[in-house]
Design a protein that fits this description.
This protein has six helices and two strands, in the order ββαααααα. By secondary structure, the protein is mainly alpha-helical. It has one domain.
Length: 133
């Protein structure tokens, strides 16, 4: 079983249990930081242009926006959105869509640099299209 050095040696299953106790916003921030760390490691030794694109691709939606978007989507599904919340959800949806469109542009540029298709690149990187509620 892998072990991670923190202040003491912690088995990864214990680390995962600790992470599981985080609040939703803290969990989302933690996941964002883990993804950024993974992206940095993956980009080591890559050509600079590819490395920069991978970092941009892995930025994701800021956690505060994602958290609020998720909250509003939950309320929408429960049909409890107020008119103001509906307007906020529309604005956040536009923001998220712009960020995702920019991400697809970065993916397409990386695919071009690597001489492959966007679909093949996404499959190779383990990236799935986002699911919208």
């Amino acid at each position: 079983m892998p072990v991670i050095q923190v202040e003491a040696q912690v088995p990864t299953d214990e680390l995962l249990k600790a992470v599981g106790r985080l609040s939703q916003p803290d969990l989302e921030q933690f996941v964002f930081q883990v993804i950024a760390l993974r992206a940095k490691r993956q980009t080591a030794g890559l050509p600079r242009a590819e490395s920069e694109l991978l970092l941009k691709i892995n930025e994701g939606v800021p956690s505060d926006i994602q958290t609020r978007y998720n909250e509003l989507m939950t309320k929408r599904r429960a049909e409890t959105l107020t008119p103001n919340e509906y307007e906020e959800l529309l604005r956040l949806t536009q923001q998220v869509e712009k960020l995702e469109a920019r991400r697809v542009e970065y993916l397409a540029e990386l695919a071009r640099l690597r001489g492959t298709s966007l679909t093949a690149l996404m499959e190779n990187l383990g990236i799935r299209a986002p699911a919208y509620g």
